[in-house]
User: Fold this.
Amino acid sequence: MPEFAIQFFAFANVNNTIRLRDGKLLVRLSDLLEGAPESGRYVSSREIATKVHLVRQMRGRKRIESARGRVYDLEAIFETLNTWYFHGLLARPNMTWSRDHARNSLGHYDPAHNAIVVSRVFDSPQVPRYAVEYIVYHEMLHLKHPVKLRGSRRCVHPAEFAAEERLFSHLEEAKRFLKRL
Ligand SMILES: [Zn+2]
Assistant:
């Protein structure tokens, strides 16, 4: 028997998934079932149908699209950066390409959905991997350094944030590339 890992997961719908990953069986149950009785036709009951509808509306407002783009897999990039720069200690948020091809925002961390969103513009073979990595790295630093209040000013990129950003191995090339865009 493989090892089991079972967790509740904030799917936008009543989803349950079972995957075999690295020899481990990963079972993810919709968190909508957290209060479910052990047996019975819970999912089809009227009460749960209403709950599902509400949650789908709330979570659906920002649909979490796939982390896997045509060229780059954001989850894989996260894991690589996590190992290189964070000793693997950051918990991975939802990783997603934006739905549109917005250029005004490279990426952002959305604490409400615990999601790092990267503009789909960068999911292209013309974009070097280090540029995507830099955008993800920047947002990972936002995960690590939550916004601080200095008096009445919000300090989004405090000194320790900036210092850590300089550790990125292709910082200059990445910035140069993104400026040209
Ligand atoms: Zn920032």
The helical segments are 46-60, 74-86, 129-144, 159-165, 171-180. Strands lie at 3-9, 16-21, 24-30, 94-97, 107-110, 115-118, 148-150, 153-155. The pocket of zinc ion is lined by residues 138, 142, 156-157 (CB under 6 Å). The radius of gyration is 19 Å.
